[in-house]
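Please decode residue identities from the backbone states below.
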């Protein structure tokens, strides 16, 4: 953004969408949507899961073409056939999922996206210059596998800034960041806006929208239902615009007694098969019936490996390392653990939790083929599977375009609701979930969190691995943090606060620096 100034001289908007309509089969994802983005504003795009936000920004970035409507750039109608057309105008996009090569350096990754004759050396120089100018620490020579999620996002932002953008589209950029990293991102965005760059900002976190956005467009079921200044609204009033009704608060569990231990882990250590993975070191904890254990941590600190070990995706060597209802399960695979009444919902929705090209009923079979009674003697009861899928869709208000659609046609948040709902349906005795409300809108997140609290109240042991500290404080009875593959001590939630959790997430363990944590 070097050398650009804010141009308030004329009133023509930077970007305008007029009457945009996009249909997928019978679903109208965008229905005559109007949007005006002015120079230098941070403009929030709000809406429930499936409201049509991603579809709209994909149209503005040239990934999708609308069925009807126009896009205007500085007052002139344009046609965006591919992202290259959008980039040529100065539109950049930072995606939710980063497409980076782990084994390459930061500079090599960025070079790949540039014209063939660009030298990695020159890119490295530019990365250094931009990172110094914007206070976005990033070493161009580091390999991506060594970087935190926040640093990976910085690569995408720097990549975007190298193209001198006039508009940056960001799809839920803080979902993967720690509170400190998010603060840093906000500083950068406010600075960019001050320089005249516009930001179109999708987020389900309404407090941060109120904090940094000066205008908002709200979509509901594909239509624009409101435009407002979020600074003048409350999180509740913004949520009401999105949903069209008040959102129920999560009712905290309150004081309650726990039952016997249902999940125990003793001295779990692993060596990752993947050289870029994290080793787990001597992890021990117990979860009793009626208890929700929240495991906080910044992504990449062993959460994935812990989930794989707890679920049996990667069995451990000593059977007694892990027990479900007192029975050793260390060497049991995921299906054997499921037969014992356990359920697991991984973070990665497409690929691990669901297959995009499979219908929802077929996705029910993926995790439930041994436990749901819909496969017997090698025959699949397709109607039974469809009934189960419908039950999940109704209970968790999964918004779908038809009776039994493919998983890949659902919006990100709706697929997450389906994956979590599928696991909760059987009222499992032990359930382990990773990032259960990632990308899920405020209303649906409240439904999922309440369902977890209610499940524990019925006697289940619940483990929630989450980066979202607000979520952990909302639902957990006990809290621990994972950092560099080590788990902190487990604390009762009422002895924990944000600062203490933050220290534990940063690897300050009570055993090493008792005072530091206890004094927090
Ligand atoms: N490729 C596709 N095929 C069929 N339907 C689709 C496709 N992409 C999106 N849809 C449908 O269009 C609607 C809008 O989806 P979109 O992804 O734009 O929502 P969103 O507001 O971004 O949701 P989220 O907050 O969950 O990401 C949804 O009903 C979704 O199921």
């Amino acid at each position: 953004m070097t050398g650009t100034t804010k141009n308030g001289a004329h009133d023509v908007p930077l970007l305008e969408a007029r009457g945009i309509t996009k249909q997928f089969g019978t679903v109208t994802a965008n229905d005559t949507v109007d949007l005006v983005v002015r120079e230098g504003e941070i403009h929030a795009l709000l809406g429930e899961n499936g409201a049509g936000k991603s579809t709209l920004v994909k149209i503005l970035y040239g990934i999708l073409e609308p069925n009807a409507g126009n896009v205007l750039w500085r007052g002139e109608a344009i046609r965006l056939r591919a992202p290259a057309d959008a980039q040529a105008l100065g539109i950049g996009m930072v995606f939710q999922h980063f497409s980076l090569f782990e084994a390459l350096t930061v500079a090599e990754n960025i070079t790949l996206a540039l014209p063939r004759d660009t030298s990695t050396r020159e890119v490295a120089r530019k990365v250094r210059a931009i990172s110094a100018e914007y206070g976005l620490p990033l070493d161009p020579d580091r390999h991506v596998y060594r970087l935190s999620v926040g640093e990976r996002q910085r690569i995408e932002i720097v990549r975007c800034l190298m193209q001198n953008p006039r508009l940056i589209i960001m799809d839920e950029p803080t979902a993967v960041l720690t509170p400190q990293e998010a603060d840093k991102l906000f500083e950068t965005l406010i600075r960019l806006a001050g320089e005249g760059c516009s930001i179109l900002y999708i987020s389900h976190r309404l407090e941060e929208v109120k904090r940094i956005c000066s205008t908002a467009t709200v979509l509901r079921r594909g239509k624009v239902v409101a435009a407002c200044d979020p600074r003048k609204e409350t999180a509740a009033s913004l949520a009401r615009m999105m949903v069209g009704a008040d959102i129920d608060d999560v009712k905290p569990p309150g004081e309650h007694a726990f039952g016997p231990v249902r999940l125990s882990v003793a001295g779990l250590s692993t060596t990752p098969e993947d050289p870029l993975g994290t080793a787990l070191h001597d992890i021990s904890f117990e979860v009793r019936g009626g208890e929700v254990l929240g495991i906080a941590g910044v992504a990449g600190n062993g959460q994935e490996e812990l989930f794989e070990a707890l679920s049996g995706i990667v069995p451990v060597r000593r059977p007694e390392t892990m027990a479900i209802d007192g029975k050793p399960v260390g060497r049991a695979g995921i299906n054997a653990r499921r037969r014992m009444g356990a359920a697991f919902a991984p973070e990665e929705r497409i690929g691990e939790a669901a297959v995009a090209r499979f219908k929802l009923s077929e996705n029910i079979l993926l995790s439930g083929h041994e436990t749901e009674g819909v496969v017997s003697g090698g025959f699949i009861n397709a109607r039974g599977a469809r009934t189960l899928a419908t039950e999940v869709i109704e209970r968790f208000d999964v918004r779908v375009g038809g009776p039994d659609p493919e998983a890949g046609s659902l919006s990100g948040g709706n697929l997450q609701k389906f994956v979590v709902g599928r696991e909760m349906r059987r009222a499992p005795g032990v359930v382990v979930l990773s990032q259960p409300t990632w990308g899920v809108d405020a209303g649906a997140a409240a439904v999922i969190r309440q369902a977890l609290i209610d499940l524990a109240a019925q006697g289940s042991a619940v483990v929630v691995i989450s980066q979202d500290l607000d979520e952990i404080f909302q639902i957990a009875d006990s809290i621990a943090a994972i950092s560099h593959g080590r788990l902190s001590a487990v604390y009762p939630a009422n002895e924990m606060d944000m600062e203490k959790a933050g220290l534990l997430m940063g690897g300050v363990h009570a055993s090493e620096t008792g005072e530091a944590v206890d004094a927090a």
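Observation: Residues 349-425 form one domain.
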